[in-house]
Amino acid sequence: MSQERNTEEQIIAAAKKIFSTKGLAGARMQDIADEAGINKAMLHYYYRSKEKLFEIVFTEALDKLLDRLSNVINANMPLQDKIRAIIKNYIEGLIENPQLPLFVLNELQQQPELLVKQFKTKPNFPNIQQFLMEIAVAGEKGIIKKVSPLQLMLNILSMCVFPFAAKPLLKGVTGIDEVQFKLLIEERKQFVADFVLAAITP
Amino acid sequence: MSQERNTEEQIIAAAKKIFSTKGLAGARMQDIADEAGINKAMLHYYYRSKEKLFEIVFTEALDKLLDRLSNVINANMPLQDKIRAIIKNYIEGLIENPQLPLFVLNELQQQPELLVKQFKTKPNFPNIQQFLMEIAVAGEKGIIKKVSPLQLMLNILSMCVFPFAAKPLLKGVTGIDEVQFKLLIEERKQFVADFVLAAITP
DNA sequence: CTTTGCATTAACCAAATGGTTAAACTGAAT
DNA sequence: ATTCAGTTTAACCATTTGGTTAATGCAAAG
């Protein structure tokens, strides 16, 4: 009985929320239990330890970030269109999970091994090499300027992700509120795409 | 006697190192004491509490980030040159403090009030409005394309800062090592500047 | 030499925290 | 109705952690 939702799922949902806002070190098991509306002991009953629970949540988060890339990065379409698609797709994904990047980036800096673990269990990460090659080839063909593929990809990613990571700073420095922030992000899908294409069009 | 360096300074240096790598929640007072080579009680003797110590370190870090911007952002030179200067200057600053952005961004998300506090005590933060106006004017004059000044500034900042925040991810995904990473960053000063100018040149 | 004021340390403390345990509850199968 | 398995809870435990205290060290002033 109790809640209609499965307890395990509720725990994961709660853990996701708490971990992604407070981080591994800052999260308290009690917080997660409260958020899930259950007893603290349940957490250990279903998931042995804080670390185990964290790993599940983190892996899923990182997975979501990488999957979002994979979907478009190796699609079969002209490079320019693909770049537009990547940017649109990625920003839209981040709108749904605004605090994901900072969470993942931060935990990854403190435990880089987590990435290795991810690759071992989920080898379906985006085929970046192929995408980089595509950029190089397009450069040779004169479809776009000759540019360092890695640098270009880094630029694209940077412009998509950074605003979400810097949200509080951005709000504080410019004085914009939540509504304006969302508007800014919405505009950004178009702006960044135009920006990148303008930069690499010969 | 003891060490030649002032104890207070040693504490701050140690706290800076520990806080910026582990964050407020993850840092242990004992770690800081060990790093400084002193007794834990000394930390409380000189700085009342963990929070007080953290605030000093954090404020200094944020200050450094913002100051670095201020220096160039309102200089008196052609916009194109200024953009080049900002990018070069900012990336060089980050090379010296690679983990600063993630530290500041992360703590800022968990306690946005820290920004307000900063503004109260240090009103010398970069005059962004003026810079944005400059971009708008340059757009009107046809010196650069007409673009959203805020979006442009965000793009520039993103491309400078993000690679440092995403360092472990970048290393893990591309397989590059520390040397190659530094090379990549070094190249980036030029690349990002060219990229931006190409994007906004009419 | 003694005093004085700051610096330093070891020992200690209370609260918080991750984790455990044993008992109680629940609903289905016998 | 009883049993039985999985679920849930309250109470408890050991360790960690931020913080305190009382005693000691020590260099300069008297």
The count of helical stretches of chain A stands at 11
CA gyration radius of chain A, whole angstroms: 20 Å
Strand count of chain A: 0
Largest interface comes to: A-B, 54 and 54 residues
Estimate the mean pLDDT confidence of chain A.
93
- CA(first)-CA(last) distance of chain A: 65 Å
List SSEs of chain A in N-to-C order: HHHHHHHHHHH
Strand content of chain A: under 5%
**Which term fits the overall shape of chain A?**
globular
User: What's the story with the biggest beta sheet of chain A?
Assistant: none
Return the structural class of chain A: mainly alpha
| Low-confidence runs of at least 5 consecutive residues of chain A | none
What is the multimeric organization of the chains shown?
homodimer
Helix content class of chain A: over 70%
Can you walk through the features of this model?
The structure is a homodimer of 202-residue chains. Chain A has 202 residues and is mainly alpha-helical. Chain A is 79% helix and 0% strand. Chain A has helices at residues 7-26, 29-36, 40-46, 50-73, 79-96, 100-110, 113-121, 128-141, 149-165, 167-174, 178-200. In chain A, helix 5 packs parallel to helix 9 (149-165) and helix 9 runs antiparallel to helix 11 (178-200). The longest helix of chain A has 24 residues, at 50-73. The radius of gyration of chain A is 20 Å and the shape is globular. The model of chain A has no long low-confidence stretch (mean pLDDT 93). The interface between A and B is large, with 54 and 54 residues. Chain A binds a DNA duplex (30 and 30 nucleotides) through helix 3.
